[in-house]
Automatic annotation (TrEMBL):
Residues engaged in binding substrate: N102, S128, G129, G130, H187, N188, Y192, K262, R289, R447, H453
UniProt-annotated catalytic positions: K184 (proton acceptor), E191 (proton donor)
Reactions performed catalytically: 6-phospho-D-gluconate + NADP(+) = D-ribulose 5-phosphate + CO2 + NADPH
Assigned protein family: Belongs to the 6-phosphogluconate dehydrogenase family.
Pathway annotation from the record: Carbohydrate degradation; pentose phosphate pathway; D-ribulose 5-phosphate from D-glucose 6-phosphate (oxidative stage): step 3/3
Protein name: 6-phosphogluconate dehydrogenase, decarboxylating
Gene source species: Kuenenia stuttgartiensis
Length: 471
């Protein structure tokens, strides 16, 4: 009796996915580089489930039904290539390898070509939702050939999260080659932006009205009941309630203000620049993490450089409402940037992505799941070629009606010297996007002045160069 699914890499995500798959009635074979981890898993959570341990790639492959469906859950980079190389000698034509890690999409493109030349099938699949998601329903973003997807679809639909709105599974075919990993990368870029916007909102509230942790919990809980309802706001509300075992103080206050990152946010910004799609809020979030990591240098600078002093403590209600509005409007702008990056990438790489479908599979299971995604799904379903989310009637109204308080929140941050790079990047994006005229005429003049780079005119077509030094 052979098993219907195989998974390699029993770290936290791998283990939870295996348990999820087994709970849905599929028999699973597992293999891990170190046998000890496999033993632990088998005698722990995997006990009494339809899970078979194997201890070599050969044994692992032999234990699976054909065409084999093998998912690898190892660290992005060289480890993925190493696992593929180990597996390859034992595989047969038509077998499917799924990479469920956060691989860079161009690595996935390369691996797809290599494996397809060996008559094997390759699926690069974004998996979001952390441990909980993997165990009880992740959002899945598979890219590869349609026929390979058809073979894994029943299993993936079974284990994926289901959207609360319509019960649909949060998995859909994304596009060929690296399309799935591309979408996961952009998901993570949006995740970085969401997190930074929330962090700036927290800083803004702290520096103005300085809520106690319980009050912070109440504010975020209330926000989570409205248009900001999302996983990240929900967990933020909980974070304020946790106290430190060691000191009894709020744990948040004991955490060093140095943000880590594994690279997916950075890749989003890098690739967006490469293909010419502006994602200023995402980039601001990546920069903010980098700046935060310069803790020592900031501490030194804080002794030398000083900022303004202002007082907003008496405007409690107004500040809380303004920050909430600024957060929501800024979030819309960062999703607009992310969706437009996907649109641009789809053209650039021929992925033929369905933006409404992508928004719909982010509605549950993943880190950026949010009420807002119901509206984004609707916006693209009613108009798949929407040039920008801000042009959808609902989003237009949402942003315009919050404009005054959004500006007030950003202005307050500037007045108080609170870094609000992501909130203000979103606002500047909105202002630039709605400008029929930008000062780029001056940039063109400068380029032509020093380098004869030429310019176009507003009144005649053609390419012009001026002799600038001649008065
Ligand atoms: C998810 C997350 C996850 C990502 C972490 C860490 O969708 O479940 O995006 O895949 O690896 O959030 O990212 P950083 O370490 O770069 O913050």
């Amino acid at each position: 009796q052979k098993n219907s699914f195989g998974l390699i890499g029993l770290a936290v995500m791998g283990q939870n996915l295996v348990l999820n798959v087994a709970d849905h009635g599929f028999s699973v074979s597992v293999y891990n580089r170190t046998a000890e981890r496999t033993h632990e898993f088998m005698s722990g959570e995997a006990k009494n489930k339809k899970i078979t341990a194997t201890y070599s790639p050969k044994e692992f492959v032999a234990s699976l039904e054909r065409p084999r469906i093998i998912q690898i859950m190892v660290k992005a980079g060289g480890a993925v290539d190493a696992v593929i190389a180990e597996l390859k000698p034992w595989l047969d034509e038509g077998d499917i390898i799924i990479d469920g890690g956060n691989s860079y999409f161009s690595d996935t493109e390369r691996r797809t070509k290599e494996l397809e030349s060996n008559k094997l099938r390759y699926i690069g699949m974004g998996v979001s939702g952390g441990e909980e998601g993997a165990r009880f329903g992740p959002s899945l973003m598979p890219g590869g050939t349609k026929e390979a997807y058809a073979l894994i679809e029943p299993l993936m639909s079974a284990i994926a999260a289901k959207a609360p709105e319509d019960g649909l599974p949060c998995v859909a075919y994304i596009g060929h080659g690296g399309a799935g990993h591309y979408v996961k990368m952009v998901h993570n870029g949006i995740e970085y932006a969401d997190m930074q916007l929330i962090a700036e909102s927290y800083a803004l509230l702290k520096s103005t009205i300085n809520p106690a942790p319980e009050e912070f919990h109440e504010i975020f809980t209330e926000w989570n009941n409205g248009e900001l309802s999302s996983f990240l706001i929900e967990i933020t509300a909980f974070i304020f309630t946790k106290s430190d075992d060691k000191t009894g103080r709020p744990l948040l206050e004991m955490i060093l203000d140095k943000a880590g990152q594994k690279g997916t946010g950075k890749w989003t910004s890098q690739n967006a620049i490469d293909i010419g799609a502006p994602v200023p809020t995402i980039t601001a979030a990546v920069d903010a993490r980098i700046l935060s990591s310069m803790k020592k240098e900031r501490q030194e600078a804080s002794k030398i450089l000083s900022g303004p002093k202002n007082n907003y403590a008496d405007e409690r209600g107004k500040i809380i409402a303004a920050v909430r509005d600024a957060l929501y409007a800024s979030k819309i702008c960062s999703y607009a940037q992310g969706m437009n990056l996907l649109k641009r990438a789809s053209e650039e790489y021929g992925y033929n992505m369905d933006l409404g479908e992508i928004a719909s599979i982010w509605r549950a299971g993943c880190i950026i799941r949010a009420k807002l995604l119901d509206d984004i799904t609707r916006a693209y379903r009613s108009r798949s070629d929407l040039p920008n989310l801000l042009l959808d009637a609902g989003f237009k109204h949402a942003v315009q009606s919050r404009q005054a308080s959004w500006r007030f929140a950003v202005k307050t941050a500037f007045e108080l010297g609170i870094p609000a790079a992501a909130l203000s990047a979103s606002l500047a994006y909105f202002d630039a996007y709605r400008s029929g005229f930008l000062p780029a005429n001056l940039i063109q003049a400068q380029r032509d002045y020093f380098g004869a780079h030429t310019f176009e005119r507003i009144d005649t077509s053609g390419v012009f160069h001026a002799n600038w030094k001649e008065k």
